[in-house]
Write a structure and sequence with these properties.
Length: 466
């Protein structure tokens, strides 16, 4: 286990010994190198990502200095790098008997076991590291945590990061990884805590401000998220991820004017990113600037013709502007690229309904319910069509199916109330509307938008009492 900084020894001396080694290999000569020389050679090749020559150097060093524990440790390390775990563990077991207090030995044992997914053995070896005498415990614990992160054992990574933090509370690497690991396990309060500790020491970190923005976004604190992204951009105005997320946050808050300005600014930094142009198109669609919206969706598709979201965006615009044939053409393109997208099937159903193809709309809504049974819109759409078809039994069946699942959704109650009224079940309809109005103050108005009760004075009086 070595850091990049460990490779920056005396460069001239290192290059001299490396050149001597390569000359020996080239001319097949026999030169003598002491253990320190070999360590420098091996470390040089590892820093250069040349595992082949590093392995060759280890083999020659091992034959020249067979009793050197330093060389044997390098040998074990190369076995781990080359995924020869059985050979590595054999060497490490021998070294453990010779140097039972050598933390490097147990670190490599833990790595070998972890990469073989033998978690219990890895945990045992890594914990032995904590009992050894070490020159830099913080660095060692940080490296163990990094290996656990790579193996998606985040809680175990946190365990060693907290050990490192208890020794050196100002280690920026440790603080950053604690923030990130707690974010990964959805403990957002702890994540925020460690990112803030990092910023107390180094306030001009664009990446940490950006990560803090993500934490606030995930916790629904959008005002703080925008503030964090703003700080990230103040430190680094070219932080495109922060601009993206800030734009998305404004869009979530339905502040589309602010969002579109940010996305347009991104086109200077990422002129070839089709998703940026698609995001601009989405904002203009929400702002009801439909021609601009189409323009930017087309720009996105000119860069990437397989961007399904751009076709979907165009379909929504054409649907809103009652150009159903164009809407149909584009939503079919979107579905051809991404056939299992709930939103696309929902859009197709609305398009089919707009084209007067009720049966095809029903099939599309049913497909949407299969893709995501936890979203209410497709069920509401199905119930609406069945209501217009006067298939009241189907409306009731849909209501019974989803009433408990979507108990907080007033729309399904309003449609069911309409079906009840149209069947002459006025009292039951009123009871259902009373339930709907507890969730939606405009429930009666929504009901009257789909059912005419002009000639039913008694019912109108009952409605007025709700």
């Amino acid at each position: 286990m070595r850091e990049e900084s460990d490779f920056f020894y005396n460069e001239d001396e290192t290059m001299e010994v490396v050149l001597r080694f390569e000359t020996m290999l080239k001319h097949k000569q026999n030169f003598f190198f002491d253990v320190v020389d070999f360590e420098s050679i091996i470390d040089f090749y590892l820093s250069s990502d040349n595992s082949k020559l590093a392995t060759e150097a280890v083999e020659i060093a091992s034959s020249m200095h067979p009793y050197s524990t330093e060389i044997q440790l390098r040998k074990a390390e190369m076995f781990v790098i080359n995924k020869k775990y059985i050979e590595a563990l054999s060497v490490l077991s021998m070294l453990e008997r010779i140097e039972p207090d050598n933390g490097e030995v147990f670190f490599l044992k833990g790595q070998a076991y972890l990469e073989q997914k033998e978690l219990e053995m890895a945990n045992e070896a890594f914990w032995r590291v904590t009992e050894c005498s070490l020159e830099d415990k913080v660095e060692m614990f940080y490296h163990i945590a990094s290996l656990y992160q790579e193996a998606n054992e985040v809680n175990l990574a946190i365990r060693f990061l907290l050990l490192a933090h208890s020794i050196e509370s100002a280690s920026l690497n440790v603080l950053f990884d604690l923030g990130y690991c707690y974010e990964r396990i959805d403990e957002l309060g702890e994540s925020e805590k460690y990112y803030n500790l990092y910023l107390d020491i180094a306030p001009f970190s664009s990446s940490v401000w950006y990560n803090l923005g993500i934490i606030f976004t995930r916790s629904g604190n959008f005002a703080k998220a925008l503030e964090a992204y703003d700080f990230a951009l103040a430190v680094d105005p070219t932080n495109v991820s922060a601009i993206h997320n800030m734009g998305n946050t404004y869009a979530t808050l339905e502040k589309y004017d602010e969002a579109v300005k940010l996305f347009i600014s991104l086109t200077d930094l990422e002129p070839d990113d089709p998703k940026v142009y698609s995001s601009i198109g989405e904002c203009y669609e929400k702002l009801e600037e439909y021609e601009k919206s189409i323009e930017y969706f087309d720009k996105a598709l000119k860069i990437l013709s397989s961007l399904s979201d751009a076709y979907y965006g165009k379909a929504l615009v054409y649907l809103k502007t009652e150009r159903v044939n164009l809407a149909h053409e584009n939503i079919k393109m979107a579905l051809a690229l991404e056939a299992e997208n709930y939103d696309y099937w929902l859009c197709l159903a609305k398009v089919k309904f707009g084209m007067g193809k009720d049966d095809e709309a029903i099939e599309a809504y049913k497909e949407a319910t299969l893709l995501n049974a936890d979203e209410p819109d497709a069920f509401i759409g199905l119930a609406e069509i069945r209501l217009f078809q006067e298939d009241f039994d189907e409306v009731e069946e849909i209501y019974r199916e989803v009433a408990d699942r979507f108990s907080d959704i007033s729309a399904i109650k309003i449609i069911y109330a309409a079906a009840l009224y149209l069947q002459g079940k006025s009292k039951t309809s009123i009871r259902m509307l009373k339930q709907a109005k507890t969730q939606n103050p405009f429930a009666v108005e929504d009901f009257l938008a789909i059912v005419s009760v002009v000639s039913d004075d008694d019912f109108v009086l009952e409605l007025e009492k709700i």
